[in-house]
Amino acid sequence: MVTIGNIQLPEFPLLLAPMEDVSDPPFRAVCKDNGADLMYTEFISSEGLIRDAIKSRKKLDIFEYERPVGIQIFGGDEESLSMAAKIVEVTNPDLLDINFGCPVKKVALRGAGAGVLKDIDLMVRLTSAVVKSTSLPVTVKTRLGWDDNNKNIEEVAERLQDVGIKALAIHGRTRTQMYKGEADWTLIGKVKNNPRIKIPIFGNGDIDSPEKALEYKNRYGVDGVMIGRGAIGYPWIFNEIKHFIQTGEHLPAPTIEDRVAVCRKHLYKSVEWKNPVVGVNEMRRHYANYLKGLPNIKEYRNKLVTLKSVEEIDEVLNEIQQVYTGYRFEKTPIELINYHEKCPVN
Hints:
Shape: globular
Number of strands: 11
Distance between the termini: 26 Å
Order of helices and strands: EEEHEEHHEHEHHEHEHEHEHHHHHH
Low-confidence stretches: 339-343
CATH architecture of the largest domain: Alpha-Beta Barrel
Strand order of the largest sheet: 3-4-6-7-8-9-10-11
Number of helices: 15
Structural class: alpha/beta
Mean pLDDT: 90
């Protein structure tokens, strides 16, 4: 068992990463169905919460079926983060996570997210302020460092543990790397194997197959892995990894019926949570991912992103299922979507 505060997770848990504009309740619902052990909200601005910004408050929505679930906040000011922590606690999540990892300019260059990696003393003060402001278990997600010359994650891990965090998730890239190149898990392994470190250490970055998850588990000794881009359009990755670790065998690839069913549930949850207009519009970004690999799918995909009613979308999804019934999907590593500056994976 892996323990975060009073939260008990299975041995080698699989975490769904907090992703801006992706890991909302509808997406989390389909990931939970397919094996995610711990999930997080999209990151939420501490300043937005304090201003009572509608978008920020909406991101606090969590549901009982999601548990355990954490709410993630970001900011660069001790007082604002402390106040935000108090607001978050009222919504009763299972834990509170601090984002010190988002690399996009609008966050990092304003002294929040990965920008805090430039000032470890500030990171420690911010974290301590949050820990003191809440009775929730506090965790942190961050990166290896600001750039190749400043990979300070080993110092960060020790100092954040000393001020009371209960777990640490590390993305194997620096801020300047964004999502380019391969994630380097070597330092993640060093943190995990540091005898001073007693809290769970979760690795994050480029987990795109059951084989890689098992390899990294064995090579680096992490307590679990956090999956972001690999789950977009493919929530089955969680159960596939679990099955492979337990048996050494692959689950069958999801069929067209599986894909349409999950896509449809995602759509219905989106409409239910947001409203019919916003739910339909925001679901458009997901169809290509769910239908990836189908030959000659472009015409159907183009239809799906122009339709405005759930009923019309349902008809097209039914037609896709009929046309592609029996199609055999190949088992290949999941394509990691590159969002570049959009930075959904924070």
